[in-house]
Write a structure and sequence with these properties.
Chain B: It is found in: Nucleus. The complex is a heterodimer. Chain A is an alpha/beta fold. Chain A folds into two domains: about 5-50, no CATH class; about 65-165 and about 255-370, 3-Layer(aba) Sandwich (Rossmann fold). Chain A is about 45% helix and about 15% strand. By secondary structure, chain B is an alpha/beta fold. In chain B, the strands form three sheets. Chain B has a nine-stranded mixed beta sheet with strand order 2-11-10-9-12-13-1-14-15, sandwiched between helices. Chain B has a four-stranded antiparallel beta sheet with strand order 4-3-8-7, covered by helices on one side. Classes of the chains: A alpha/beta, B alpha/beta. Chains A and B meet through helix 5, helix 6, helix 17, strand 6 and strand 8 of A and strand 1, strand 7, strand 8, helix 2 and helix 3 of B. Strand 6 of chain A pairs antiparallel with strand 14 (about 290-310) of chain B, so a sheet runs across the interface.
Chain lengths: ~375, ~350
Amino acid sequence: MISNHYVHTFQNRDGASGDTIVEALIANSSTFGKKTVFSQEKYKLKKQKKYAPKVLLRRPSTRSICETYFKKSPARTGFMRVDALSLLLSMANVGPYSDVLVVDMVGGLVVGAVAERLGGTGYVCSTYLGSAPSSIDIIRMYNLSSDMTSRIVQAPLGDLCSLQNSFNASSVLKDSIQAEGPEPNTVPVENTEPSIPQPVDTTVLDEKAQSSEVQPTNIDISEPTMDEQINQDDNSSLDCKGNDVSSIASKSLRAGKAPSPEKMKYWNEHGFSSLIVAAPGHEVESFVADLLPLLSYSAPFAIYHQYLQPLAACMHSLQVSKTAIGLQISEPWLREYQVLPSRTHPHMQMNAFGGYILSGIRIHNGDACNGIQ
Amino acid sequence: MLKMQLPTLGCYFCVFAKLTKGSAMCANLSFNTRITIPAASAAAEMMVPLDPSAKPTSQRRIAEGDNVVVYERHDAMRAVAVRAGGVLQNRFGVFRHDDWLGRPFGCKVYSTGGGGGGGRGGGKAGAGFVHLLAPTPELWTLVLSHRTQILYIADISLVVSYLELVPGCVVFESGTGSGSLTTSLARAVAPHGRVCTFDFHEQRATSAREDFERNGLSSLITVAVRDIQSEGFPEEQRGAADAVFLDLPQPWLAIPSAGITLKQDGVLCSFSPCIEQVQRACEAMRSCFTDIRTFEILLRTYEVREGALKGAADDEECNAGPLPHREENYCLLRKLQMVYIILLLSWLGLAAPLKGTPAT
């Protein structure tokens, strides 16, 4: 049995390589010879991991970023497991030239994943309730090209909904939106008062012909945004991210800017191709009701939540309102296996809680007579 | 009409591995490839738009030649090519394609059976209706004709994620089967990537090719007839693939060739229904792949119903008898609670018939 002191001497003074140390440990171990073949292999791997570690450098991808956060700090990403995220992307038909509407309150994991799948075509419109968007810092992990980051835009839900209503109603609303435009700038960056965003919220909400159910949700959300970086538009993001390396700062400058009025108009007329909602910790029923009208007809949507009850309530209200079909609540189940000769079995611990997804397709619920419109 | 079969319990194993450096594989492979590249499809390219104008939006109207997915119920859908004078008949009645022209996708259409064609059938009691949806790879998986057992959304989504596919990638696949996964791979790599798929069965390869053409995917997907297990991937494709997917009865025979076809840092996935196949595949991978992981994935679905639970006070009240001056209080106690009852519907798994070993 070699003592730790001996090993350190070996390492530092004699400059021995990790493999040499491992061999020496094996040679001097009193119990090694009595171990089974499997046990010996396990022992060797353990020592190698400590004294001769190898790392493989790989480009980050949606899969690896999601897995890392899930292992290290799952609370930041709403306990979204890789298979749940993959399902969201498939169910929402994220593909080339898609205009994907996203509510991302999981740090930007979903926005980044969608941007990666779009590959520089289409748009990701990350929308938020209230006046301050939640942080989407995780997109920096994706190493997105400038093409891809330029496709990420942020717009408050109030603006998107107001446009919708002004499309149907008068142009008075359009003037109000322009009047509101400069308001977010005047709200201080380090805003910790929940009461200050509220007046802005209520003016936005008053314009909306939508139900007032959104109001209580806004009040809830103003608290989480206190802690997160407030990233209001290009100008203030310069202040927020001043301490970053310049290339990273320039990426975050390009991502998350407001969409052009032409784009907003296009989305208003054509609708978004699909919707992904990842807002764990929020009641989703009310703002899904506001988000669905922004989608194209026959557009799929996928709503992720940590818990089942909010999705059940949401599904029920969608069924009653008949605004969507193909509704399904799914729970993905993932089990990893160790596959080795004579030692194949599932990993000793399995994660049983990767969240739930409500998926469906928005339908046209206009009048359904036969014949051409 | 294909009724969707939802299999019960079952599991599939996907094995993911990444290519390491210095894979010294000497495989004596014979190459006898027939690669046919079909002409560009005339069908509307909606399923995977290759152009911003091709995607279905609220402004788009159903036109002749469009593919629509007719949604009858959550487990009853079919793909229909719209044509003038065409008719669809199902349990809900007779539907004329002409009534669909000019309607937006996602609309509800009524049958014209019985009382007067072309009139407002909506008012008639019992008039059947369906919804017309724009096709997507997910819907295609649910409506395509099964020539073989197919992959469903849970496996497809995990495979696409773990193969790290982004637009522009080149993916090699064997076997094609019914083209369920192939369609989703095409979406993942569009608009400039490529899917090269191989199947040893000539008829199935032809059917798949026709499906892809009908769905406007011919420019993305190349189908070839080749026995990958015995011949491997074509030599001229050495180092061409960002990712390789194998769904074969004996994948270990194809793994050396997959190693040659993959670029450095490429990802291989092998998909098998049986653990013995998984074990042999992993063994074959160990020499030139690293970071080998094996997963089993299933999807559970939940049904939501609104119901009523009775309060405990109800029973007490019956025994106490009527007391008129306290009736108001009793009314409050007897108020029923409305709750959502969440039922576990089923394990939506994937059961595969045991893939037989090919005859020697």
